[in-house]
Amino acid sequence: MHYQDFIKFLKSISSKPLQVLDPTISKKQYVSLDLSVHNTNLNKIDVSSSYNLENYIQHYLKENRALVAYGGYLEERAIYKRSSHFNNQQTEERNIHLGIDFWCKAETPVIVPFDAKVHSFKNNSNYGDYGPTIILKHTINDIIFYSLYGHLSLASISNISINQEFKKGEIIATLGSKEVNGDYAPHLHFQIIQDIQDFQGDYPGVCNKSNLEFYKHNCPNPNSILKL
Predict the structure, then answer these.
(1) C-beta separation of 72 from 101 below 8 A
(2) Could you tell me the CA-to-CA distances from 186 to 6, 61, 100, 210 in Å, in that order?
(3) In sequence order, which residues have a C-beta less than 8 Å from that of residue 52 and are 6 or more positions away?
(4) In this structure, are residues 225 and 6 in contact, taking their beta carbons and an 8 Å threshold?
(5) How far is CA 183 from the centre of its chain?
(6) Is residue 154 a contact partner of residue 134, using CB atoms and an 8 Å limit?
(7) Where do the domains of the chain lie, and which CATH numbers do they carry?
(8) What dihedral angle (degrees, nearest 10) is formed by the CA atoms of 202, 147, 177, 24?
């Protein structure tokens, strides 16, 4: 399906915002967060430290009287410089974020935005990677697409199975702590994928500038359904 048609399809699924986090958290308690290289406030902290980044986010949430900080689609970020998983001398640096992040407490429930089957799951345990990850397959009006949930708890992938079905609104996972989630402040990485290609339990959530056009089309802005 052409990119623009896929965007229109996503927007048409629901006129109301769809949710991927604990629905008892009011949208009034969400605040947008800029973690891009253009946020000069980040120059004051060591973003390679999950402890320092978590303190920054917690202070930001408190300052804004919020429980969830969200954002990051197509953000160019410096945080990935710390890991050879994204940054090595053999390949072009990957630093452009392809999903939306929701920064909040570990163990926060993650829910399914629409009916789904489990496509695959995996613990992506590289330093700076997703940690425990679930990919769901969706079929709506004969159109197939996928959604990815990264930085989960280990318990989230311990009792699920391929092709297991979930209904819209059901809890599929909880958020992991920095000890298991790739060494990040607790958060959910949520990404929509049109063509999963041959990936299983994993899909690039960060790309380089050379491949941006492909990934921008294959992984459109999740806000098409979240309407944040």
Answers:
(1) yes
(2) 30, 13, 14, 29
(3) 45, 46
(4) no
(5) 15
(6) no
(7) 3-226 (2.70.70.10)
(8) -170
d(CA 169, CA 146): 16
CB-CB contact of 118 with 160 (8 Å): yes
Q: Which of the 8 DSSP states describes residue 32?
A: E
**Per-residue model confidence as pLDDT tens digits over 63-94:** 999 999 999 999 999 887 766 666 665 678 88
36-64 pLDDT, tens digit each = 999 999 988 888 888 999 999 999 999 99
Residue 169 neighbours by CB under 8 Å, 6+ apart: 19, 23, 111, 112
Q: DSSP alpha helices (H): ranges in the chain?
A: 3-12, 50-63, 212-218, 223-226
Report residue 174 as tokens. 């909880």
Structure tokens at 37: 């290289």
d(C-alpha 130, C-alpha 123), whole Å: 8
